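== Sequence entry ==
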Amino acid sequence: MTNQLKGNRIQDQWLIVIGIVLIAGTLRAPLTAVGPILNQIKEDLHINNGIAGLITTIPLIIFGIVSPIVSKVLTRFSMTHVLFYAILLLIVGLVIRVSGGIVSFFIGTVILGIAIAFSNVTLPAYGKWRFPLQIGLITGIYSVTINFSAGLGGGLSYPFSTMTPLSYRFSLVFWGLIAICAILVWLPQLRKTNDSIDDVDMDTEGDQMSLKIYRSKLAWAVALLMAFQSMMFFSMVTWYPSILVSKGIAPESAGYFLMLNQFAQLPMTFTFPIIAAKMQSQRNLVFIIVGLMGVGFSLLFTESYWLLILAMILTGMGIGACFSLCMTLFSIRARTTRVSMALSGFGQSVGYWVAAIGPFLIGVVYDMMYTWSIVIILLLVMNLMVLIFGWYATKNEYIG
């Protein structure tokens, strides 16, 4: 890492920060926009709940496949170029997803998964490299953006579907506008050619550790913490609207409930990375997360309008805190950028493979049982897994 980069401050690099924010804004909204309009999609494509669950599950499977490949790609191409082409690919996926029937819908979904996977893995390492003295702050900034855009995706999806004759297709393709803005802002960064992983880290021991990351118990704990955080998140954004409708909430209101859930994440996703980066062990943060999620999920058993709102707020705060903690662990549990990249790729690969089970399993279980109570119990079990693996992942140790 050069002395120049050690002196880089977020306050002096606003164009880069805006670019990071816009890229982060494309990583969840295309996925969270699906839940509130899932019934429209099912009717138009003639699919059941199990297949509908695959709409969210497929990107997770793709994340699991692609994530470990990203670090290898970054040994040949700069991080700025990888992020740029990932956004271009995302736009292609958004267009293909709404261009035809079920085949093009799922092809577009696969392309989206590939594009988002590259940005998912690259963005934390890029932030660690570009702002090494402000890791917590830059992590908080892009984590907040991810969750803010996720909230917009969930809240605006249903209203957008009623605005034009394109129906739900307009809701899903709209987010390409943010991607286009990201490309325009990111163009000046393409002149940077010294941020491939070989250029930013010349540590041989770190290189060897990155190749053996799967042998680290700590890396597995971080990966499985990421897994159950992601399983809860994508299960929530896929099925929360359906659960709420079953409680008597109108479909358009269910979308706003989901937006509230996503917006409740914002203060936690900004503050938790800053706090976590200053702590030697983050176990107390895990207890806070599990407590918020446990109470919030339990409130889903009720049919009280106001208690359901409280459930959205509490689970939003908990999942936002958990997500940003995972992102921070990718940086603070690694001694070098190379190992951080390897941990991020490994953690997201394992994490999303496991997480992919969630939305699909919930759809299948509901088709079999016709009750959302068993689904809520499954969410509580996922939360217990966060406690178990979070306990180990947050102890004061390092990889590499």
About this structure: The first helix runs from residue 3 to 6. The radius of gyration is 20 Å.
